[in-house]
Specification:
Elements (H helix, E strand, L loop, with lengths): L13 H10 L3 H10 L6 H7 L9 H16 L3 H11 L1 H9 L1 H9 L1 H16 L1
Length: 126
C-alpha cells in the first residue's frame, strides 16, 4: 500500500499531493512518500502513516468494526455530515476539477508508456 506513481513514471498530479497531505500523518512525510513512490511493507506501517484507520486480525473483527463505524455514521444527520466532509475536501475538489487533462497527457506520453511497458513485462515474469 502506498503511492507508487513516481516508481512507474507517472508524475503525481497536484490533487495527489493534496490528498496525501490531507490524509497522511504529516505534510513532510506525505511529500516524501509521493516523491519517492513509497510503498508500505506491513499493515502496521500503513497504519502509522495514515493509509489505514484501523487494523483487525480477523474477518469477524473487521466486520464488527465496520458495522460499528457505519452505525456511528448513521447517527449523524446526513446533510450536516455531507456539508462537513465537502468543506474539509474543498481544496482537493478544486484541484480535481482542473487537473484531468494534465494527468491524461502524462499517461499517454512516451516516458510513461515506456516505463509502464517495462513494468508490465517484469510483472509477467513473476
Amino acid at each position: 500500500m502506498g503511492l507508487n506513481e513516481t516508481r512507474v513514471g507517472l508524475a503525481p498530479p497536484p490533487w495527489l499531493h493534496a490528498l496525501a497531505r490531507l490524509n497522511l500523518s504529516n505534510a513532510r512525510t506525505a511529500d516524501w512518500m509521493v516523491q519517492v513512490g513509497h510503498l508500505c511493507e506491513t499493515p502496521e506501517e500503513a497504519l502509522k502513516y495514515g493509509f489505514l484507520d484501523h487494523i483487525e486480525d480477523s474477518e469477524e473483527g473487521a466486520e464488527e468494526h465496520a458495522i460499528a463505524q457505519l452505525k456511528r455514521l448513521a447517527d449523524i444527520p446526513w446533510n450536516a455530515r455531507v456539508s462537513a466532509k465537502l468543506g474539509a475536501r474543498k481544496e482537493l475538489l478544486q484541484l480535481l476539477d482542473g487537473d484531468l487533462l494534465e494527468t491524461v497527457d502524462c499517461i499517454v506520453g512516451d516516458e510513461f508508456q515506456t516505463v509502464a511497458t517495462a513494468l508490465m513485462a517484469s510483472l509477467k515474469k513473476k
